[in-house]
Design goal:
This protein is of the alpha/beta class. It contains 15 helices and 12 strands. The radius of gyration is 22 Å and the shape is globular. The relative contact order is 0.16.
Length: about 400
């Protein structure tokens, strides 16, 4: 029997990054030096005081037993304290926050908790894949809303609600956005909250990049809108802020009913993260925050090197205001081939891996996502390779056309 006969896996499309990942693995197996700016996998080490706390907690044998599915009390309190000092928002650590195994797990399990087959969910497009597919796995019908500078989000939201049967039960937000790096202000959240309250729509906000911002004010939380607590839950993560991606610690905070639903599902599925990891996460949130600024400054410096270098190479790319990504429109001469073919050419001839925009949804076509996940020296090497690639673009385009004629 084929796995494609299973209901839930049958609903998932082929993983569009798989071909790029396979090319990357094959090239490295041949000894080629591929500069990987594809996956958003932080290369900065976890700060030492957090690692030291993990080691200390591991040495305490009492921490080796099952943990708590909702997260240890100290960590929920630390997360509530973070919301207070960062956003001025009071969160009840007992009923309005829960620890997740990264924000990705929290989103997927909340989808399982609140979704019935046939429910309509509104998801931006392009988007981080778990946003639509977490709900697809849960049996929902996902309606995609185009996202980007050419679209008015509120108009797209109103249009989607008007033309959805049944009426949507939830909408997903992600700002600062992965993959587009778009940022919004509190006025935007106010408008969305007012609209969704009137329509009876839950809001799931992904704020994973809250602390990776470069220009202007720090990104706000939707929970700064007091009425958001009636309909919204927000996901945050330790992965990018503290370079703890592999530790798998995140949070959901907000509406008590949504938090209770997530807690109930998680109580059947897991016992929470390893207690020493949670103890170390407490040390991260409650300890010195110099490391957060250091990470932010590092990504900003990398951004500036990347954007200036690509511009000089003949590939103008907008400078992201936040996140660890640049959302880069394909160079005009390569637009006809699409993001997947362009990414493959870049891998083959420039030895640089990027993520094709089509992998984030149909409205991501025409772009690639470039991660700020290598040091400045490696980014400069990538730029040199790309500059040479661009200088030979006529040859590469002609070769591609010949293969596809």
């Amino acid at each position: 029997m084929s796995h494609t006969e299973f209901y839930r896996t049958r609903r998932l499309p082929p993983y569009l990054f798989a071909e790029i990942n396979a090319m990357k693995a094959d090239a490295r197996a041949r000894g080629e030096d591929i500069i990987d700016l594809g996956m958003g996998n932080p290369d900065l080490p976890t700060p030492q005081h957090i690692v030291d706390k993990l080691k200390e907690a591991v040495d305490d044998k009492s921490t080796h037993r099952y943990s708590v599915s909702r997260g240890i009390t100290g960590l929920r309190r630390a997360h509530a304290a973070y919301y207070k000092r960062r956003f001025g928002v009071n969160i009840d650590p007992e009923s309005e926050t829960i620890v997740t195994l990264g924000s990705k797990e929290g989103l997927a399990n909340l989808a399982q908790a609140i979704t019935a087959p046939g429910d309509v969910i509104l998801s931006p497009n392009p988007s981080y894949p778990i946003h639509p597919y977490g709900f697809m796995i849960a049996g929902a019908s996902v309606r995609h809303m185009p996202l980007g500078p050419d679209y008015d989000f509120m108009k797209e939201l109103a249009h989607a609600v008007q033309h959805s049967v049944p009426s949507p039960s939830a909408v997903i937000l992600c700002y600062p956005s992965n993959p587009t790096a778009e940022v919004v202000d509190l006025a935007f959240y106010r408008e969305v909250v007012d609209f969704c309250r009137k329509k009876g729509i839950w809001i799931l906000s992904d704020l994973a990049y809250a602390e990776i911002y470069f220009d202007g004010n720090p990104p706000p939380s939707i929970l700064e809108i007091p009425e958001a607590r009636e309909i919204a839950v927000e996901f945050t993560s330790m992965s990018k802020t503290y370079s703890m991606a592999g530790w798998r610690v995140g949070f959901a905070a907000g509406n008590k009913d949504l938090i209770a639903a997530l807690a109930r599902v998680k109580s059947y599925l897991d016992y929470g993260a390893f207690t020493p990891i949670q103890v170390a996460a407490v040390a991260a949130l409650n300890g010195p925050q110099d490391c957060v600024k250091l990470h932010r400054d590092t990504y900003r410096a990398r951004r500036d090197v990347l954007i200036a270098g690509l511009g000089a190479a003949g590939w103008p790319v907008p400078s992201p205001k936040a996140t660890m990504f640049a959302w880069a429109p394909l160079p005009a001469d390569f637009m006809e081939m699409g993001s997947m073919e362009f990414a493959k050419l870049l891998m083959e001839h420039a030895k640089v891996a990027v993520s094709p925009g089509a992998g984030f949804g149909e409205y991501g076509e025409g772009y690639v996502r470039i991660g700020l996940v290598e040091n400045e020296q490696r980014i400069r090497q990538a730029i040199r390779n790309i500059k040479k690639f661009m200088s030979e673009k006529d040859k590469h385009i002609a070769s591609w056309r010949a293969k596809n004629s």
